[in-house]
Amino acid sequence: MNFIDRTISVFSPKAAYNRAKWRDAYRSFYDAGSMNRPNTGWTTVNASAEQADKAQRDIIRARARDLERNSDMAESIINSFERNIIGTGMSLQAKIKKKNGQEDEELNSTIEELWKEWCRAPNVDVTGQQTFTEMQRMAVRRMQVDGGIIFVKVYTSGGLLPFKLQIREVDDLDNSKNSYGTDKKRITGGIELDEYNKPIAYYLKKYTPDGFYLGESERIPANRVIFLWDKKRPTQIREVSPMAKTIQRVKDVDEFTEAISVKERILACLSVFINKSSPSGIGRNNKIDAKSGYPTRTLAPGMIQELEPGESVSVVNPSGQASNAKEFITTQQRLAGSGQGLSYEATSRDMSQVNYSSARQGLLEDQKTYSILQDFIKDHLCYEVYTEFVISAVLAGKLNIPDFWQNKQNYFKHSWITSGWSWIDPLKEVKANQEAINMNMDTLANVCGSRGMDWKEVLKQRAKEKELLKELGINDGGESFGESNKANNGNATAKNS
Q1: DSSP per-residue letters across 239-301
Q2: Does residue 348 contact residue 340 with C-beta atoms inside 8 Å?
Q3: What whole-number distance in Å separates Cα of residue 209 and Cα of residue 154?
Q4: What pLDDT digit, counting tens, does each position of 388-429 carry?
Q5: The dihedral of CA 149, 152, 158, 160: what is its sign?
Q6: Would you kindly state where each structural domain of the chain is located, as residue ranges?
Q7: Residue 283: its pLDDT value, please?
Q8: Are the beta carbons of 34 and 28 closer than 8 angstroms?
Q9: Burial class of residue 374 in the structure, from the number of CB atoms within 10 Å of its CB (0-12 exposed, 13-18 middle, 19+ buried)
Q10: pTM, whole model, 2 decimals?
Q11: What whole-number distance in Å separates Cα of residue 185 and Cα of residue 424?
């Protein structure tokens, strides 16, 4: 109440109350902004992204990692991203063109072969343990669980090229490095920023080989660091785990499933109690249970046991059914998947409730989610690594390009072919793609790319196969050309007669 309302309340509390309620109703243009009874206790604060994230970033990451280790439901979500975004890896296609506009097939083939060799573990990983495809899969997993991952460009003398990658976790960012001075350079969360919040350098902690922090950090310039994380707000400086939206739901399902499992084990128990009318321990050789402290006996199939005088048997056989957990778990898993942009079928691998149309629609929606993250990996990781790879190959003399430094951008042109996805009904999809290509609504490159294949390689391989079929006298239908011609001639003769 304001001053006028309080003054009126001295003479008429009812009138003052009505004035305050009508004023609140008039001011609430949105139900979501009202402070009525359903919204009581819903107190929120507007803050910058970094202010909102940094207080709970480490807690969320630790809980997400705990679910990654122990929850099959969380692992199913993570595996869906890892399996579909990277899969068997992304293939490089160099797109360098000559001055006449034609593609330089010889140089492109040389670069592609050199790239395949460099992507092997001894050449790409500074530890020599992971291939570039395995690094990409780790990047997707860590982005989903931790919220981000760091790649450091390392220049060494060993390997195919003097360029390798070192993977660092987001935990390695030195949070103790914070400086909010009046100068243009600022440090927050281990990242040095300019006046526009553009990263200038990263402070990464130093550890012993067994993981103990040495108490100091190393400043690495930003041009040597690839920090992969998904920025959601303009004021966001660092990562937050995408699992934050589903952590609590997954934890509830795990605890509920454990409770149901315990209940089912109890219902499966059969216990026998022996009632005695005489004192225990007289003339008997009973074993004492270490936990309960009571004498125990065991049951065996077909056992015939004589009881002592004064003893009788009482059987405890729990009855009843456990609650129907399937509907609850299904609903929770559907919500957890949708919170990550995936369908229930993609995370549960349960196809019992779909038909062709619904399965295809769900697959298309999932593929949109995967495609967004595939483009992110291509733009922020693969492109950065590839350009550094080409420069290192030129400097090392592996690529002989006389005008490279005058036309660098021309020699950086390339594309990536993802592992692709299989079709639900191949016959329908092939017919639809054939019609789209014939009507100039699609291209062979797009169709092959959706399946993770290079259209040029497909055409070259088909040409080789057709040439071999012709040499062997076999047509595409499996018959020899001689037999086919005889059959055709016989049909023509019968038709003429």
Answers
A1: ---GGGGTHHHHHHHHHHHHHHHHHHHHHT--EEEEEESS-TTSS--PEEPTTT-SEE----T
A2: no
A3: 18
A4: 999 999 999 999 999 999 999 999 999 998 887 776 677 777
A5: positive
A6: 3-40, 270-317
A7: 46
A8: yes
A9: buried
A10: 0.77
A11: 54
